[in-house]
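Aim 2 progress update. The chain analyzed this quarter is reproduced below.
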Amino acid sequence: MTVAERHAAPAARGRLRRLRPPAGVLAAMTVSLTGTRVSAIAIPWFVLVTTGSATRTGLVACCELVPYVVVKTLVGPLVDRAGPRRVSWAADSLSAAAALLVPLCHALGVLHLWVLLALVALIGSVRGPGDLAKDVMVPEAAERGGIPLERATGCAGVIEQLAATVGPAVGGALVALAGPLGALFVNAACFALGSLIVACTLPRGMGGKVTDADERDGYGQQLRQGYAFLRGEPLLLTIAVVVGCTNMLNAAFSQVLMPVWARDSGHGPAAIGLNNSMFGAAAVCGSLIAAAVAHRLRRRPVFFAGYVLSGPTMFLILFSGMPLWATAALLAVAGFGAGFLNPILGAISYERVPRPMLGRVRALIGGLAWAGIPFGGLLAGAAVAAAGLGPALLAGGGLYLLTILVGGLRPEWREMDE
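Predicted structure tokens:
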């Protein structure tokens, strides 16, 4: 070994050690989000094939989503107090156990509807803290790895987009090959692997709890501190409200408007898969580019260009009645714009929130951003029933654009580039 090689080897080992925290957090996010997507396919399909009831299927899905949103919103002080590393490990372990209880109770013949509702509510409740804890560890992992924050949030955005694109396909394939109960075993294995990754790859000093001064405050006081901080940050509050409104419109688009469009246009459900795949694949490309170059760009123009490109245009593309190939191609353009949003939004909130309050403030922001999602499909269904698909698509696109413009005209948005 030459002298240069002897000097290079310790430097390479040092770089690998620095990259372990961000790699560990991103790997844990990957497997837990994969498990979540598998669960989203396996559990509703299990209910549908065993009961034949669409109503019960929807009820089970709702019982998983609502506790996820509520608990994730309220658990911020616990994440700050106990430390996100510990919460992530414990939540993924509990998620694995809860997922295993479904096939176990079915095998024992005790999986009544109320038991299943309780189990999926438990799964949703423990997934929320686990997802929040990994999210909170992103800025510390980026700092330890010497990575720009926009690049770290861009990588996290890539993982989310990949999970949204590839996860349903993996879940559907697993259900087809192994059945819904077999897919739930894979789901449990994903959460167990996420817990193991956090325990083995992240340094023990990472994701520590907050200071003793903060620990003297009770849970309610810590929650109020997070709320007071968010109220004192107009940019973060405005972002949360705008994203909450547009998330509701996104849910309306994906849950009701696109399926109705596929039925009425004669393209069928295959068109939904094609459109979602094109949008998701392009969003992954956008997130990859954002991870590479977003830290060199002005955030405000890039953010609003991506928002306008990805949001209102989705509704107008379906309204236009163009051929399927053109619809899929233009939705890919919209997905590319969407890939730039989460890296910018994540970096802004990580920068503006003090590390000891990151859990509770990020939880409140996430609660506001997710609050409208359960109602998007209901509003879209009512709009289609009252006025038809075309007017509903126009109204959705108009409301989307109005939300972006009204939010964008507020003076707080100028702080994005500070």
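The chain has a mean pLDDT of 80. Residues 239 and 345 are 8 Å apart (CA to CA). These observations will guide the mutagenesis experiments scheduled for the next reporting period.
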